[in-house]
Specification:
By secondary structure, this protein is mainly beta. The protein folds into 2 domains: 197 residues, Sandwich (Jelly Rolls), CATH 2.60.120; 125 residues, Jelly Rolls (Sandwich). The chain has 1 helix and 25 strands.
């Protein structure tokens, strides 16, 4: 009799379970539950930008998905595509022409949507401190939007979680410097979810059964320079010095000279300078150095030499923060892909004291410096007040360029 009762109870539960499952649309995936304690990892930073040392994938090859050795969709994702436009803001790539877009399957908001790539040859990230990428996603609720990135080295893995904002590009830097296997990365996996527990929703409400939250990844790379604004104490972003001590503290990169011509050198970077003619440095130069020599090497010209340098005047012993813009628009060697740059501080007195605090470094596009064929030496209204006197001279060799030319003056 007891066995019969147990059998009837089991049949009742089976029928109820079957009826419950039929109430859900086909394609709904059951996986995990909402985790209110899921937060960004402490070794993950949201940064203002990054200048990579190596580019893993810029996602600018539209035919390179769903193929061996390329990106493929996983659990919670319907498909993966390379897109030049997408439905959410800002509707344009972070870099280049395309992004990697992951299309959500019919899963709950708090379930992961995954995409991964297994590499034919392992990646070596030993020369960089950060895995960097830009991430974007659809928006819905105000709860946390989370990206999980997992690096694999064979059977071992290194998992990190970042919080991002919807409808905008969040720049993420994942510290890998303490992972012993970063020199042999065999696979990278991304996953995305909205950490929302459906509070206030009921069956039938939009988003209750599933949420079609797509997301995008762009400019996946390895970097040391994570914004060049030096906001993390102790993180020099790969900058080194000769003839000086260098450290990062209080939101500055601090250079303390110990020699007569200290040098600050950037890490290896990949930076297009065909569209950026100016190196901008915001700093406080509390030292006697009154000049700085900007030097650089490029992918096209990788050797240090005087042909790729220019000396600029700077204000010495200034406790005020100023932005110094080194406009190199006239320099014929400032072109191509920048690999590294350095600043050598100079002084006629051979100074080796004081401190230089750099708040940020940026690449800018300013108006090109105008080149004039001569010099205006005099311009005044004559004493008789009936004419304007203008005098000047052309530079040597310029006169033949204006043979037959007419000087015209326009009243303002």
């Amino acid at each position: 009799m007891m066995k019969l009762k147990r059998l009837k109870t089991l049949l009742v539960y089976s029928v109820l379970l079957a009826l419950t499952l039929q109430a859900y649309p086909a394609g709904i995936v059951f996986a995990g539950t909402h985790d209110p304690d899921l937060k960004a990892s402490p070794h993950v930073l949201n940064v203002t930008g990054y200048t990579p040392s190596i580019v893993i994938d810029d996602f600018n090859e539209p035919d390179a998905v769903n193929q061996p050795g390329k990106w493929t969709s996983g659990a919670g994702a319907e498909k993966v595509t390379y897109a030049d436009r997408y439905a959410n803001g800002p509707n344009s790539p972070y870099e280049g022409s395309h992004v990697l877009e992951v299309w959500s399957d019919e899963v709950k908001a708090y379930e992961w949507r995954t995409v991964s790539r297994t590499f034919d040859q392992p990646l070596d990230l030993s020369g960089v401190n950060y895995l960097t990428f830009a991430a974007n996603c659809y928006g819905w609720q105000t709860e946390d939007y989370l990206i999980k990135v997992t690096l694999f080295s064979g059977e071992d893995s290194y998992e990190s979680i970042a919080q991002i904002n919807p409808n905008s590009w969040s720049k993420v830097a994942v510290s890998v410097k303490d992972w012993a296997l970063r020199d042999h990365v065999t696979k990278i996996e991304f996953a995305f979810m909205l950490n929302f527990d459906h509070g206030g929703l009921k069956p039938g409400d939009p988003g209750y059964e599933f949420w079609g939250g797509n997301y995008q990844i762009d400019y996946l790379s390895g970097s040391n320079a994570i914004g060049m604004d030096f906001n993390v104490d102790g993180e020099t972003e790969g900058f080194t010095a000769q003839g000086a001590e260098v450290d990062a503290a209080g939101g500055e990169l601090r250079l303390t000279p110990a020699g007569v011509a200290p040098v600050l050198q950037s890490p290896m970077i990949i930076q297009d300078i065909d569209h950026y003619n100016t190196l901008s440095v915001k700093w406080k130069n509390e030292s006697p150095f009154s000049k700085v020599k900007v030097e650089w090497i490029t992918e096209e010209s990788p050797d240090w030499d005087e042909t790729k340098s220019e000396v600029f005047d700077i204000e010495a012993d200034n406790s005020q923060s100023v932005e110094q813009e080194f406009n190199l628009s006239l320099h014929p060697e400032w072109s191509g892909s920048l690999k590294q740059f350095r600043l050598t501080f100079l002084s006629g007195g051979g100074a080796s004291t004081g401190e230089i605090g750099i708040d940020q470094i940026r690449f800018k596009q300013l108006a090109p410096i105008e080149v004039f064929p001569g010099e205006l030496t005099k311009h005044e209204i004559a004493a008789s007040r009936d004419r304007i006197v203008i005098e000047g001279a052309l530079k040597p060799g310029e006169a033949e360029n204006f043979e037959g030319g007419v000087l015209q003056l326009f009243e303002l």
